[in-house]
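F.,

This is the one I mentioned.
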């Protein structure tokens, strides 16, 4: 709130998504006449009221919509969109302080884009509690309401309903196109790049894939049957279904090495796996000695795109394009006490945020409240990692490798 060197808060450490602010002179995305108007910030979800309008039209919070649209509300509530104003974002906005409204408003373009939400954040910077609409992050009204009017896909079931609840709704086919999603999920062509590749390019990656040609959109995969849970990298089952994973353990031959090959293929992700610079996927193969890794036997493969916290350097980009596979080849001498060969793939959806928040806590002087929020965000992000896949192949007891022992079938 006061001085506290808030000046340099925004520089030095930046989130990949923050770069978008400096990078976006215009709304230069592939768009349509409807969408360029529809997504113009700040989104005017409310406005002047007419006195005869019923409560169902005027109430714009997600919970109000949820009284009738029960399924959408239940699904959205556990989606990442509902968490878009979590402690990591709010803590930083508060730490930036009210003197840095331009910076803050930039974040809100994607995290709480309605004018009403912007005003609530502004009030919170003056000391009020964060209002309910802002707290909801990317909420129903952001995607569906302008000036109290509802917009949605032209679904037969609704068009035929013949009831007029909130003044009916305006159908638009653009709700089913990938372009609907990109004002928050894609840098435009002049945006920040490292090694020639935009820092956020999910639409560009999708556009070049066979999914675009086949008409498989963001919504097809992330909103199947109109679902609103927006599963992504944080959902193990969703991720697992989109990959083909094979472990082959070679029959051991004259040389005493244990030979194996773990192959990971992007067989169902409609863009690079993973698309952003924030997640990291680590595959490891090792030999097991009494439930410990036999020393020196672990081999690793990292899938992801790692960049420095100041976004100046790229360390590696090993993401898998749609259809692409990568192998971890293993050839390591059998350890004397090894009883099994093990393989595991661990996904850290928020790996870059863990590094970011740790550095943030170390670098900046924060109030007790701001520090508590960032610490909560850090704990949440550390806890989001999960085991995506694992396998264990027992090794025969013979110390002398036995080439006739067959490989158990893949699972
Ligand atoms: C172009 C849209 C966009 C802008 C602008 C933007 N973000 Fe994000 N942000 C996203 C998306 C999409 C994600 C989720 C993907 C990911 O994890 O990288 C995200 C994730 C995050 C996360 C991690 C998730 C969480 O809730 O803890 C934080 C923290 C965050 N943003 C903070 C900010 C801050 C601070 C700003 C302003 C400097 C900002 N963002 C600006 C789109 C944006
Ligand atoms: C990030 C944007 C976004 C948010 C947030 C969002 N929706 Fe949707 N919604 C869509 C899109 C896109 C479709 C069309 C999906 C399709 O048919 O492919 C849709 C479809 C719908 C439909 C039509 C029926 C159906 O299930 O397809 C209703 C009703 C609806 N949403 C209500 C809600 C409610 C209520 C909320 C809040 C709890 C909400 N939406 C939050 C984007 C969003
Ligand atoms: C009182 C019940 C009620 C409330 C509250 C309500 N809706 Fe609806 N909604 C309906 C009904 C019924 C329809 C079907 C069309 C009609 O009768 O107007 C509908 C239709 C829709 C559609 C069109 C679906 C399509 O095919 O595109 C969208 C989008 C939508 N509502 C969004 C919302 C949002 C967002 C909110 C909250 C801001 C909300 N509704 C609040 C009952 C409600
Ligand atoms: C063919 C299905 C498919 C299509 C099409 C698709 N996605 Fe995904 N998406 C996935 C799967 C599976 C994941 C989880 C694995 C991953 O993170 O790459 C994912 C992950 C994500 C994530 C999580 C962050 C990350 O780093 O991966 C975001 C954000 C996302 N998709 C947005 C989009 C947008 C926006 C579009 C449209 C331009 C889109 N997706 C098109 C399947 C798809
Ligand atoms: C108003 C901005 C906005 C729009 C429009 C939007 N998103 Fe998002 N989306 C976000 C933000 C912000 C996050 C990150 C929230 C967080 O993690 O704190 C996010 C997260 C996601 C994720 C990540 C899930 C994960 O596990 O990390 C997926 C998938 C996703 N969005 C899909 C979509 C799709 C599909 C559409 C279009 C129907 C869409 N989004 C439209 C802002 C938006």
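My design for it:
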């Amino acid at each position: 709130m006061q001085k506290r060197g808030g000046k340099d808060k925004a520089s030095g450490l930046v989130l990949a998504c923050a770069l978008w602010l400096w990078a976006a002179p215009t709304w230069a995305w592939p768009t349509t006449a409807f969408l360029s108007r529809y997504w113009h910030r700040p989104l005017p979800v409310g406005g002047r009221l007419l006195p005869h309008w019923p409560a169902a039209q005027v109430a714009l919070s997600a919970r109000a919509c949820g009284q009738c649209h029960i399924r959408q509300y239940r699904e959205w509530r556990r989606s990442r969109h509902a968490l878009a104003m979590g402690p990591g974002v709010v803590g930083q906005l508060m730490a930036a302080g009210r003197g840095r409204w331009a910076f803050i408003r930039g974040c809100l373009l994607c995290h709480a884009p309605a004018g009403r939400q912007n005003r609530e954040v502004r009030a919170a910077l003056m000391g009020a509690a964060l209002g309910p609409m802002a707290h909801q992050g990317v909420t129903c009204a952001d995607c569906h309401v302008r000036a109290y009017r509802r917009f949605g896909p032209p679904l037969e079931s609704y068009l035929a309903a013949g009831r007029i609840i909130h003044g009916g709704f305006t159908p638009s086919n653009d709700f089913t196109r990938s372009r609907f999603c990109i004002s928050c999920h894609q840098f435009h062509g002049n945006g920040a790049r490292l090694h020639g590749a935009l820092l956020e390019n999910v639409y560009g990656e999708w556009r070049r894939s066979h999914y675009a040609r086949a008409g498989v959109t963001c919504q097809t995969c992330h909103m199947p049957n109109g679902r609103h849970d927006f599963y992504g990298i944080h959902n193990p089952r969703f991720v697992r279904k989109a990959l083909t994973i094979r472990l082959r353990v070679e029959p051991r031959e004259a040389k005493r090495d244990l030979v194996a090959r773990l192959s990971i293929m992007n067989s169902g992700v409609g863009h690079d796996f993973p698309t952003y610079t924030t997640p990291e996927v680590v595959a490891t193969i090792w030999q097991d000695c009494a439930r410990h890794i036999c020393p020196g036997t672990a081999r690793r493969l990292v899938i992801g795109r790692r960049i420095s916290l100041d976004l100046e350097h790229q360390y590696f980009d090993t993401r898998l394009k749609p259809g692409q596979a990568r192998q971890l080849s293993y050839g390591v001498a059998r350890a004397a006490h090894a009883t099994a060969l093990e393989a595991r793939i661990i996904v850290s959806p928020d790996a870059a945020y863990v590094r970011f928040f740790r550095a943030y806590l170390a670098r900046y002087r924060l109030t007790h409240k701001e520090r508590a929020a960032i610490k909560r965000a850090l704990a949440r992000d550390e806890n989001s990692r999960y085991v995506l896949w694992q396998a264990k192949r027992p090794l025969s007891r013979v110390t002398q490798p036995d080439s006739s022992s067959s490989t158990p079938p893949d699972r």
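Residues 178, 181, 185, 202-203, 206, 211, 216, 218, 220-222, 232-233, 238-239, 242, 268-271, 273-276, 279 surround heme C (ligand 4) (CB under 6 Å).

Talk soon.
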